[in-house]
Amino acid sequence: MTRRPRPRHRLRALLAALVMAALVLPLSAAAQPHIPAPSPARTGPVTAATLEKVYAAHRANAAQASRMAEEHGDRHRAGVERALAAPSRSLLSFDGRGEGQVVEVLGDLARADHVAVLVPGSDTSLDTYGRFRAGALALHGRLTAEARTSTAVVAWLGYDTPGTVSAAVLTTGRADEGAARLREFLRTLRGVTGPRAGVALLCHSYGSVVCARAADEVPVDDMALIGSPGTGADSVADLHTSARVWAARGSDDWVAEVPHTRAELLGTTVGFGTDPVSPAFGARVFTAGDGGHSDYFTPGSAALANLARIVLGETSEVTHG
């Protein structure tokens, strides 16, 4: 009989494979030309009164980045940035340098009674931003159809996400950087909405690690961890947050196979510990249906329906798994 490897041994094996990939992939990436882009626009304080000027400044910056990318020969990046520069887009921030970052608003942020902030996981960049925005659009559509009050959705690509095939995806380094940015952003957000608006953080995959690292200092009402590999905390109590903490995982999500443990390797802590959907973690587990890792914002899905209820504060209507 063959013995199944223990989770800690599986984690070490997985890390070893990722370390090898992390050594190989940068060599191929280094051969790719650097895409030029301008420094981000300076807008001053962001308030309800200055929102339109802020949006316009970042659209102009995206348009400049698009022209530079086009001249450099990267038509894909140029196209993404050209779309972001359209008059209909509402950008709270934009940075076309490197992998790129963008924070986009769907809806009337200044008047919203309920705001959802989506935090993405690995392999999300300007080049893949379209699929992240598609989820934000699906949620915004659901909220608009159901809400009796004003709502807004923020697609927050405000940190450099790790690659799925990289050693960084098993450690908290990128999450710590992202958490600092997320805290700063949410303080800015509250300056626009005021304390009256309900704010929910919807954190996907590695984004749940980012949210967990910021949890003790962010003024939000709800935090939903979806498709999470773990948070680095053993329980909800260890997050030190007053927010309601939710968790869900689709039945076809491969992240269920990730070992939910932590281990020390070469002086670095890898892995994120307790499974957020386990009773030991103590989150409010809700139904996510039979979707996979990228299906939580699929229109018509059980996951999207429950996420919309969480954003709207309709907690008694959330279905539990």
Tell me what the structure shows.
The protein is of the alpha/beta class. Helices cover 35% and strands 16% of the residues. The chain is built from 7 helices and 10 strands. The chain has an 8-stranded mixed beta sheet with strand order 1-2-4-3-5-6-7-10, with helices on both faces. It has a two-stranded antiparallel sheet with strand order 8-9. A hairpin with a 5-residue loop joins β1 (91-95) and β2. The longest helix is centred in the N-terminal third of the chain and has 24 residues, at 7-30. It is globular and about 50 Å long. Residues 1-5 and 16-32 have low confidence and may be disordered.
Task: Record the SSE blueprint.
Blueprint: H1 7-30, H2 51-72, H3 75-84, E1 91-95, E2 101-107, E3 114-119, H4 129-146, E4 151-157, H5 173-193, E5 198-204, H6 207-214, E6 222-226, E7 244-248, E8 263-265, E9 268-270, E10 284-285, H7 302-311
Parallel strand pairs: 3-4, 3-5, 5-6, 6-7, 7-10
Antiparallel strand pairs: 1-2, 2-4, 8-9
